[in-house]
Each structure stands twice: as C-alpha cells, then as structure tokens.
Amino acid sequence: MKTMAVYLVSKFPFDPPTEQFIVNELPTLTKKFDDIYFLSTARRIDKSSVQNLEQYGDKIKYQKAKRLPVWLECVLGTVANVIVNKYFYKDLHLIRKKNPKNFFALAKATASFYIQSYSYYFELKGWLKSAEFEKYDRISIHSQWNNALIGTNQMFSRYLKKRFPKSVIVSTSKSHAKGDSQIASSPAYHPGITFINKYIDKLLPIGENELNYLSECGFEKSKMHVCRLGVPGVGLTSIQNHTALYIDKPFFEIVSCSTINSNKRVWRIADALSLINDRPIKWTHFGGSDDSTYAELFQICKNELPENICWNLAGTTENASILNYYSQNSPDLFIIVSMTEGVPVAIMEAFSCGIPAIATDVGGNKEIVKSGENGFLIDADFSDSDLSSLILKLASSDKSEYLNMKQNAFDTWDTKYNAFKNYDILVNDIWGQMEI
C-alpha cells in the first residue's frame, strides 16, 4: 500500500521559522507516509530561504502556489464560487437566521472565504496534474489552518475522490484560535461552515477552548477531536535535572519569544519592567517584526528601562538556538502578553525546559498555564503594575517553592504537550480515518 500526505500551509518550509511547529511533526509523518507534499499558499514568500529538510531525503517535496494578481483572483473566485456555489447561499441563510444584525459583515467574510479558497485551488491545479496520484492507495489532504485553506482542502478532496474513486482519500484540518478566521461575532460564526461540515472527515482543534468555540459555531462534534500541538523538549526527565538547572544568579532572568506586533504587545513587558528599579533583572526577547515595531520597541527599551534592567532584543532566532539558550542559561520566567492566542508553542517550549510562565488569560492559555502551579495568568487588560508585581512575586519566592513550580511546568509539557506523544496521536487520527 502506497501512501501520500498533502499539507496545505501558509509558508512552510519557506521563510523559517514560519510555522516552525510543523518541524516537530515530520519524524512521525515520515514514518507513516511514503511521500509528503507541502503546498505553500502565501503571496509573499522568500523562496531563497528554506527550512533544512535534507535528513528526510526525497520523502518531502514542496512547492509554492503561483499566485495571480489580486484583482484576477477576486474575479475568478467570484464567478466560480460565489455566484454558482450553493453552499455560499446556505451560509447566508444561516447568518440571516443566527446573526441578522451582523449580516453584511459576515456575508462579506464568507464571500472572501470562498473566493480565496477557490483561488488557492485554481492556482494549484497544475500541481494536481503532475503529482501522479494514481500511484497512491491512501491519500491524506491536511490543512494546517482552519481559514481559507480548509475550503481549498475540501475542493482538493472532492476533486480527487471523483478522479480516483478506488483510492481512500481523507480530508483533515487543524484549528488553532477562533477557527483561525478571527471573526468577532456573537453568536460565534465561521465562514464556509455548511461546506466544511459536509465534506470534512476530521477537524482537529488544538485545545478544549478551541473545541468549545467550534462547537458554538456549529461544527459537528462527531467530526472533531482535540489534537494538541507539542514540542520535542531538550531531554530533561526528572526533578534532578531541574534542580541542576537552577542557577543561583545575581539577577532574575526573564525571556519572551514572539513576533513583535500589535497582538503580541511585547512593549507591555518593557513598560512593566520600567517600574522595577530596585532589583537586577535580565530580559531577552527572541523574535523580530515585519514593520517598524521592532525599532519602536528598541527605543522604548533604550529610553524607559532603568539601569538595573539588562535587556536584549535578539531578533529572529532559529528555534534550536532558542531552546539551547533556555537549557544552557536556565531563565527564571517566560512572559507572553498577547491579546489573542491559541495554545502558544512558545509556552510549551519554555515548559519543556522547566521555565514557569506569566501569560494573559486569553484563548487557550488557561489550558496550559495554571496560576500558582506552573506560572500565573493575568487579565488581558492588565496594568503595568499588575505585571511588575507578578514578576517581583516570582522573583521573591523561596527556592523550594520555585523549584516545585519548575517541575510542574515540565510535567505539564511532558503529559500534555510532548511532541513525540501528540504527533503520534495526530498521525494515528489521520491514519485511522484512512483505514475506513
């Protein structure tokens, strides 16, 4: 039996560290599937920068979609999908019934969903003809995001099932945060829901919070299964490892890791640290930005942080280098203060090294951070003094209490976010569907 997995992604393996969590899935995927294809759909991709996948030989192949001009995508998508697509009108009927006050905004989002989904599908049709699907007995079409990519996923699957009726073809998709559509609506709504419910084989929310949100949107519970993300960790296995990692330093060390943008609000960490002037603190932030926000943050740190705060904006950094820094330097605290989140991989990475976390109480953060056990949750609209007080609380805790928090952080990773365990579940979930 010959098997293939097709992954619809944003950029991976281009522009690393974009979608870096996929790297953690590859060891399991390559054991189960004979060939794995990554189809990258983002309009702006640096094709000269590619994740190193040499260890997997010719098992992994990848291609960037040839995007048409935006105006042409809109014309083709409108004609082919909005005008003649019955599911678009079913969605409109659902919106009118569930949320008539937001009808026009949600109708616009739904039209955009179908137009973009078809555009991706149309532009990847050339690849469809060259992939030699007839060689495979089992084919998995998996979208890494539950946005327009899941619509493309359904179109792929329908096409293949008609073209190759003797093959087993399964359609699955991950869902990270609010259906990855980021639509603010009450009651909850996801574009394309009637289409997705009809054709998806398995929808995989990354946490309980996302599962509940998708259920509220109206996705069929029988087709959903929580499939958590995970990270490999750095090889720690016991409390002795964490005790050894405790370094009695002359300063309290904080790390953070994210893109610098309006959602991640990294400058709020700097604002909180600016209130602490009587304790030596070292803060390192890993991650850059696509605009001027990095330079703005640099100026905030330069102008507002007192002399007792040693800070370093490390910029975009390879994932392996970040984990190496964590394991070698044993930071005391990880901070993430986003306005919205799924279940952050950055917290999983910190926990895999036994680093407690402070996180805003948004999205799936509450699933991983338990206040007083492995860190602390803070309100999304926290004040600078709220965050600075929590930092000082952790910095002032006694050694035994702090080591217990480190162990709890590690245990949380090992039991719920260990990549080797979780991606076995993911692949087996997909594989189980293929055995039907």
Count of helical regions: 17
SS class: alpha/beta
- How many domains? 2
| CATH top level class name of the largest domain | Alpha Beta
**Sheet with the most strands, sense and barrel status:** 6 strands, parallel
The whole-number mean of residue pLDDT values reads 88
Q: If classified by CATH, what would the architecture of the largest domain be?
A: 3-Layer(aba) Sandwich
Radius of gyration, in Å, reads 23 Å
Overall geometry: globular
The number of E-state strands comes to 12
CATH homologous superfamily name of the largest domain?
Answer: Glycogen Phosphorylase B
Spatial strand arrangement across the major sheet? 3-2-1-4-5-6
The fraction of residues in strands falls at 15-25%
**H/E element sequence:** EHEEHHHHEHEHEHHEHEHEHEHEHEHHH
Gap from first CA to last CA: 14 Å
Helix content: 40-55%
Would you mind describing this structure in some detail?
The chain is of the alpha/beta class. It folds into two domains: 3-230 and 419-434, 3-Layer(aba) Sandwich (Rossmann fold), CATH 3.40.50; 239-416, Rossmann fold (3-Layer(aba) Sandwich), CATH 3.40.50.2000. Helix content is 43%, strand content 15%. The protein is built from 17 helices and twelve strands. Strands 3-2-1-4-5-6 form a six-stranded parallel beta sheet, with helices on both faces. A six-stranded parallel beta sheet has the order 9-8-7-10-11-12, sandwiched between helices. The two termini are 14 Å apart. The mean pLDDT is 88.
